[in-house]
């Protein structure tokens, strides 16, 4: 029984003593995924596992608006048939406490440890278990980087979303006016970098001799989220205005931190803005610790939603472009590609919400054999000239067609005719 034509995600857990299996689509994930929760056997670990499971399911239903669908197997079974699907990736979220070791023989941990590289494990532990985590996690789990929570279990949710392929590695662009918020921008750069973000801040990331505007456009395209620091003079900055306009043109999410009642950009959704009171800003221009931590949680939360919205919008645009060209509905494969049979040709199309990267080429090249034609659609026109030249070489080497997202309609028309 195949896992996926309609299903992209399976979540298996136990809530309130009841084992349950939930299945979803509408997430625009690069591959299908099974996320299974288990705990080390203690009451504390079981309680934490339930809290984290509930947080994940709540975010799927009401946060990113995933679409629930009926499980193909009809409900719970001892072992999900997704474990036998090679194209489906499997993540075991192993929840522990600060005292109980995880036995390697426990079910289903033994299956995950002994399986191939489509099976991965994410240990989740309370912060007070950090010093003893090597003792609590048996080999080979002791070599895995665990995620730790300190206040509430849902602090581990971003790590679960990322490890489960629902979101991508976090990347953010900070837009600010130096004369107002340079100190806070550097503080956020440091805090978010320590939180695992790839952060662009022009103070650090643009070397001498680089075309400033070309690099800004490339960096914006590489990110999932634009963070605007609204300050007393930011509305007068042409660079802040340019970065907001480019983010909107590329479908990149935009959020704002507003400093002490500064003018608010009318183009930013008020629900995606956090206000910082004057009393929360230090005399040196940095942010107090508690509101800084609150801002980090807000940024992480909105980043995950932004990348999912971007993926969904990209898929919908491609489907509409094919329909407008008179082609049949493309079918989504378990490997993340869209398969289109038209004009006597078969196309495997890979949609990337960022400018294409090496893993995109590797995935497309290894998954599609002749006579299937591989196509990658992404924001290629935002790349600097030297990077575009590298991609031209790579597409020729791999025999892959690279299409800029702005030319999607034309590419769909040519695919329907069998001419791409």
From TrEMBL:
Q: Which domain of life is it from?
A: Bacteria
Name of the featured protein: TIR domain-containing protein
> Which residue intervals define the domain TIR in the entry?
168-308
GO biological-process terms attached to the record: signal transduction
PROSITE patterns associated with the record? TIR
Q: Which organism is it from?
A: Notoacmeibacter marinus
